[in-house]
Amino acid sequence: HNGVAVQSISWPDDVEKGNGRVHRFEDGAWDLRVFKIGQSDFEPKTFTADKVTLFVSPDCSHEVITDVIKEADDNIIISMYEFTSVSLAESLADAERRGTEVTILMEGGPVGGMSKDEKGVLNYLSRAGVDIYTIESEGKLPARYRYLHTKYLVADSMITVVISENFKDSGVPESGYGNRGWGAAVEDAGVAAYFREVFDADLAGYDIYCWTAGSEPLPEESTESEGIRLFKSKTIENVKVTPVISPDTSFLIGDALASAASSIDIQQAYISHYPDSENPWLAAAVSAAEAGAEVRIQLDGMYYNTDSEADNDEIAADVNRKGLKNLQAKILTDRDGILKLHNKGFIIDDELVLISSINWNYNSPTNNREAGLL
Q1: End-to-end alpha-carbon separation of the chain, Å?
Q2: Cis peptide before 275 (omega within 30 of 0)
Q3: Closest listed residue to residue 282, CA positions, set 300, 295, 301, 263
Q4: What is the DSSP string of 70-97?
Q5: Sequence-ordered alpha helix ranges (H) in the chain
Q6: In the prediction, which pLDDT does 10 show?
C-alpha cells in the first residue's frame, strides 16, 4: 500500500499444506484451525433449555432414547458413527411405518470397515423406508472429515439427544450391561435447530452417498444377561446449553478447562498426546491442579487402551508422578455391569458438564466431525 508491503506469505513455509486444505488468515496468524474444502464453520451459541433429561449408559440410556423415538410424530434425524443395535433399529422402523420421517447419516468407513452386522441393520432400515446416507472418501478429494464420529439425534425439531455412545448393544444396551457413557436429551427448539443446521450442512457435501441395501440380514438380538442398574435418568429445568461441534467449536473444551477454579472431574475412554506436543487439554487440567483445583481423571482399562508404550496406563502414571495430592488419575477396570469406559466428558466446578463424542487425541477435535454439549 503506497509502496509499503502490508503482508507477505511464503508457500509452503507459512502454512500447513495438505490435500484439500483451505488457508485462512485470522487474528494475525495463518491456519489457527485445520480447515478443508467443504467443511462448515459454525459459531458458538448458547441456549436456555426448558428441560434436559440426563442419563447414563449402561443403566438407562436405552430407555430414554427409545422413549424419544416412540414419541416422535413428524421426523427424526440421526448422525452416527456405528449402528448395530437391533432393538433401536426396530424402534426406528416402527417410527417410519407410523409416518415419522427418519433420515440417518452414517460414517461409511469406520475403523476396521463397516461390519456385516451394521450392513444388516442399515439394510433392514432401508427396506423399512428410512432414508440412509453415508459420508465416504471417493476420488481425488478426501472426505471433508476424517471420521463422522457423531452420536446424536433430533426428534420433531424439539428434542435433541447427544450421547457419548454409538447405537450398539454395548453403547446403548437394553440389558443394562455395557459401556459407561453419558447422554442428555434436551427439550429446546433452538438447540434442535442448531443441530439440524449441522446435519443439513453435513448431508449437503460432495462426499455423501445414498445407501443401497445389500443381502446382509438383520443380526440376531443381543443375549447379554441383565446388568446392575444403579442410575435412573434425571430431568432438570432452565438449563444453559452450548453445543460443541468439532472441528468448528471444539476450542470451547479448552476454554472450559481453563476456566476451572475449584475442581475438574474427567472421565475419558483414553488420552493421547499430540504428534508434536503434549495433549493441551490434559495440560490444562494439570495446570488447574497446580493452581489448587481438585482434579480427578478416570481412564479406560481395556487391553487395547493399556497394552502399548504410550497409552492410558502411562498417561495415568505421568499424572500421578507429579506428586500433587489434589491430582489423581486412575484406570477403571473390573466394574460390575460395565464393559468398558467409553465416556468423553468432564465436570468442572460441580457446575459445568461436557457430554460428547470427542476423544482426547489430536484427530477428534481437529479433523473429525464430532458433537457435544456443554
Answers
A1: 45
A2: no
A3: 295
A4: HH--SEEEEEES-B--HHHHHHHHHHHH
A5: 61-71, 86-97, 116-127, 189-203, 251-258, 280-290, 312-320, 363-366
A6: 87
The model carries a pTM of 0.96
Sequence-distant (6+) residues with CB within 8 A of 66 are 87, 88, 91
pLDDT at 142: 87
Residue in the structure block whose three cell numbers are 433452538: 190
Q: What is the CB-side half-sphere exposure of residue 175 using CA atoms within 13 A?
A: 19
Q: Which three cell numbers stand for residue 337?
A: 455391569
**Under 8 Å between Cβ of 183 and 57:** yes
pLDDT, tens digit, for every residue of 122-147? Answer: 999 999 999 999 999 887 788 999 99
d(CA 230, CA 184): 17
**d(Cα 344, Cα 357) in Å, to the nearest integer?**
6
CA 256 to chain centre: 17
> What angle (nearest 5°) sits at the alpha carbon of residue 61, between those of residues 83 and 149?
40
Cross-strand bridge partners of residue 353: 347
Are the CB atoms for 259 and 291 separated by under 8 Å? no
Confidence at residue 280, expressed as pLDDT on a 0 to 100 scale: 98
Instruction: Report CA torsion sign: 216, 220, 221, 225.
Output: negative
User: Shortest CA distance to 249 belongs to which of 42, 37, 48, 34?
Assistant: 42
pLDDT grade for 222, boundaries at 50, 70 and 90: confident
Q: Quick check: 224 and 175 in contact, CB under 8 A?
A: yes
User: Residues 52-77, buried b or exposed e (16+ Cβ, 10 A)?
Assistant: bbbbbbbbbbbbbbbebbeebeebbb
> Hey, what's the cell of 248?
468448528
Distance in angstroms (rounded) separating the CA atoms of residues 87 and 172: 10
